[in-house]
Amino acid sequence: MALEINHQEVLTPPVPAATVVLLRDKPEGMQVLLLKRHSKSNVLGGAFVFPGGKLDKLDNQVTQADLDQHPSALQQALAEDGLDEPTACGLHVAALRETFEECDLLLHGPGWDIQDADLARAKVRERLASGRSFLQAMADADLRPLPTLQLQPWSRWITPRRPSMMDRRFDTRFFVAIAPADQQARHDEHEITEALWLRPNEAMQRYWEGELTLAPVQLLTLMQVGRYRRAVQVMQAARSRAPMQVLPEPHDIDGQRVLCYPGDPGHSVREPAWEGPTRMTFRNGRFEPEGGLQALLS
After folding, report:
1. Cα–Cα distance between 15 and 38 in angstroms, integer?
2. Can you tell me whether residue 182 is helix, strand or coil?
3. Which domain holds residue 211?
4. CATH code, domain carrying 63
5. Which residues of 145-172 are buried (b: 16+ CB within 10 A; e: fewer)?
6. What is the reported pLDDT for 190?
7. How far apart are CA 298 and CA 276, in angstroms?
8. Is the residue at 256 inside a domain?
9. String of DSSP letters for 110-152
């Protein structure tokens, strides 16, 4: 898919959203789930993304009885100044909901008594199809409390006012989670047309060879989690630190769009957020880091 750079400034505030980097361990190595957005989608159409979407108003209508941990714990996990408890809870709910809606995976905790995961998912799908909210569908299927403990905040990405790959802004919280072993991911054939489990390095290699389209945030997130061998190590790393907060700063240099990230000389934040490339340049119809593919893999 050929990418086109956006040059318009977006004046509206970024829309709150949640995304989940789903992981699983296989003999050949840890894999990440990537979903291909429909080519006609107005947000990253044709690109491969992690499951996720906008925060729904109903996601915030959650009570402590719906959750497996106190709302204050969810607020503290996101570690954001000015973030209230209802929004923190809603972002976790949105992450669980989008994971189910986009790839049919129902994250569940040890407190649930699920004898048949396929039957449980069918019940939730039936309730959603009848117009029930995700919270109501989960309650109707006796799937409470919601398993927020299965999610660990990883990062927060805020689209700059001059986005490069779209004409809108998002304030997206990225979570990491281990995919349930008793379920198979299935795409919805509506927003999503393909689902792939790939090792992070394999996904980056296929991006470099032109087989996959990835936005810079997906590419850099794959780089980060690809430094770990097992899914549990990614979860442990997420628990050991506050989520990194990233606001890319775009520049047009010699006719090329350059995205700078914390730690880069072209970014206002001097402290790097990760080990690895801090700048991506649009060339050859895609965003490339300084140092090429090896900079992502090393």
Report:
1. 21
2. coil
3. 29-242
4. 3.90.79.10
5. bbbbbbbbbbbbbebeebbbbeeebbbb
6. 72
7. 8
8. no
9. TT---S-HHHHHHHHHHHHHTT--HHHHHHHTT--SB-GGG-E
Please tell me the predicted confidence (pLDDT) of residue 117: 80
Contact 41, 194 (CB under 8 A): no
Q: Rounded distance, CA 64 to CA 67, Å?
A: 5
Low-confidence stretches of the chain (pLDDT beneath 70) = 1-3, 39-45, 109-114, 189
CA distance 47 to 222: 14
- 259: enclosing H helix or E strand: strand 256-260
Peptide bond into 145 cis (omega under 30): yes
Look up the pTM and report it. 0.95
| 218/48 Cα distance (integer angstroms) | 8
Which pLDDT belongs to residue 39? Answer: 61
Looking at residue 7, its pLDDT comes to 83
Count of domains observed in the chain: 1
In a domain, 120, yes or no: yes
Place of tokens 């990253």: 44
CA 289 distance to own-chain centroid: 21
Query: For residue 268, which amino acid is it?
Result: S
Q: Does 288 fall in a domain?
A: no
- Within 8 A by CB and 6+ apart from 296, the residues are 204, 219, 222, 223, 226, 276, 277, 289
93: in domain? yes
Retrieve residue 25's tokens. Answer: 């361990």
